[in-house]
Amino acid sequence: MDYREKSFWLETAGAYEERPPLAGDHVADVCIIGGGFTGISAALHLKEREPGLRVVVLESAVVGYGASGRNAGFSMTLFGLSPEVTRWRFGLQGLREADAYMVRAVAEVRRRVAEHGIDCDYEENGLLTVAASDAQRRRLQREMELARRAGAHETTWLEAEAVRDLVNSPAFCGARLDPVCAILNPARLVRGLARAAEEAGAVICERTPALEVEPGPRVRIRTAHGQVVAEKAILATNAYSHQFRPVRSRQLPVHTYIVLTEPLSPAQLEAIGWRRRQGIEDGRNLIHYFRLTADNRLLMGGEDAHYYWGSAVGRDRNPVLQQRLQEAVKRTFPALAGVRFTHHWGGPISATLDLAPAIGRIGSNLLYSVGCMGHGVSLCTLNGATLADLALERQTDLTDVFFVNRRMLPVPPEPLRFVVAGAILAGMRLGDRWDERRR
Questions:
Q1: What average pLDDT is seen over the chain?
Q2: Which of 136, 197, 308, 385 could disulfide-link 44, Cβ–Cβ 3.0 to 4.6 Å?
């Protein structure tokens, strides 16, 4: 499949000239595997910190081919699955550090867009996390109290009438308003960051899958037509990390899906009253997320998630979920009952067993980042800076956060991997169905 068919963003990101693949033998100070937000950001930060470094990025397809070019385009402060899970796993101090890191991550995206003049339809209008039931309402209010106790950044509770002044849906009975969130075109953002990394002196090779990563005093990365021998290597592969033995047990790929409408007419926009164009999520375990694009299409994703046997990563369409998402749009916004849908896509995100991100080191010279949990636009962009500091052996406030070099719950091999992933997802589905039945 042509990469432009992988998402609306990649289809409409404009003309693109692919970079040549790696050929022959090369030596680098740092070799980065993965041309998404994490890897491209790491390359940019490395060259900014040490301009003389030889930095090579190997991308198996094209820059932004994976989740970086297929996500919903939210630059947001959500870390891991939820604040309650973060508190349970890492304590109030962990929740406080995670919040500060994510606020900084949104600021990093904002800064990069302005500094490099990246045309990615950037709009910082905030995020509404809406309650569609009493149970979701109570959960969101618990999270706000938990965040207050942890000293997290300030959010505001809105009652149903105030929510409907912002977006008119009979489904919403309250919402948490977070002012620190932007919507954007993620494919254009990652391409803009790649241009900045190249201008700083990084070398990016596309259509260059890393076939083997051989650890040692120097890391050897073999490709189809050459190899890179590097002092250090960064596995910035997230959902595709199961393909590399050193990080195979640290995460698993979980697929999520999106539908997109035709551009809404002025009458349709007036009917749903979405004038301030905030991003929206709901309070389910397996969330719904909504936004408007620059040309006023309505995007909706979520509803469910799937792990496929053997960590398969090629399930980019799901007709059953496509239908369920289209029905959810019309149920949430009855005024759009006759709207036409033009796009459907999906792909894998990286999930850890404890549902939180992890950055780490294997041996002395192999680094990795996994567990974006579907919130990687801002998270992975800042993770690139953290990985750059680690690669340069610098101890900074970024490398001192609790999820760097943390102990992780290992993901077992198949068939247990399929059973464990299925059990976690089944539990989340059961909670959502119970909530909907009570509602």
A1: 94
A2: 197
346 Rama class: left (phi>0) / alpha (psi -120 to 50) / beta: beta
Indicate the DSSP class of residue 306: B
Q: Which amino acid is at 125?
A: N
For CA atoms 290, 240, 25, 43, give the dihedral sign: positive
- Partners of 346 in the β-ladder: 257
Q: Which of 122, 102, 126, 93 is nearest to 382 (CA)?
A: 102
Find out whether 260 and 359 touch, Cβ atoms under 8 Å: no
Tell me: the pLDDT tens digits for 4-45? 999 999 999 999 999 999 999 999 999 999 999 999 999 999
Residue 332 is which amino acid?
A: T
Do 274 and 292 contact (CB within 8 A), yes or no?
A: yes
Each residue's pLDDT tens digit, 124-170: 999 999 999 888 999 999 999 999 999 999 999 999 999 999 999 99
Separation CA 31–CA 27 (nearest Å):
9
Q: Where are the beta strands (DSSP E) in 39-166?
A: 55-58, 74-75, 127-131, 156-159
Backbone φ, ψ for residue 138 (5° rounding): -65, -40
Q: Do 279 and 128 meet the contact criterion of CB atoms below 8 Å apart?
A: yes
Closest CA to 439 of 83, 82, 168, 138: 138
